[in-house]
């Protein structure tokens, strides 16, 4: 079964930019996919890169964070989702693609999803 992963761009404030490849990515169930995320920042501080997933009719959901010193991945994504922080990119690799992976994926330099209680 073919799956469609939509990639969207999020730009952050100041002179920071995040660029993701545009358009849909189509893969067969059980395959793998790598979604690109390139960034530039004027900050000399540690870069914190975030990946989010937004499924149809749902708000964006935090998946993982990468920075120079640590990695954090939500438990439900640890087995199949991985990202490596490089000098100016943090590609997201998804292994054993499943139908539930059909979604919009966001990459950001700053936390963009907040929880309201």
From TrEMBL:
The keyword Signal applies. The keyword Signal applies. Residues 16-117 form the Ig-like domain. This is Ig-like domain-containing protein. It holds the Pfam family V-set. It comes from Scleropages formosus (Asian bonytongue). Keywords: Adaptive immunity, Immunity, Immunoglobulin domain, Receptor, Signal, T cell receptor. InterPro entries: Ig-like_dom (IPR007110), Ig-like_dom_sf (IPR036179), Ig-like_fold (IPR013783), Ig_V-set (IPR013106), TCR_variable_region (IPR051287). GO terms for cellular component: T cell receptor complex. GO terms for biological process: adaptive immune response.
């Amino acid at each position: 079964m073919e799956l469609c992963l939509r990639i969207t761009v999020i730009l952050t404030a100041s002179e920071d930019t995040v660029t993701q490849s545009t358009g849909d990515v189509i893969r067969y169930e059980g395959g793998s996919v790598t979604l690109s995320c390139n960034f530039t920042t004027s900050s000399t501080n540690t870069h914190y890169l975030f990946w989010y997933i937004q499924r149809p009719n749902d708000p964006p959901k935090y998946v993982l964070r990468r920075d120079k010193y640590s990695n954090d991945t939500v438990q439900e994504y640890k087995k199949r989702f991985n990202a490596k922080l490089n000098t100016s990119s943090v590609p997201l690799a998804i292994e054993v693609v499943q139908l539930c992976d059909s979604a919009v994926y966001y990459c950001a330099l700053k936390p963009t999803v907040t929880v309201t209680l």
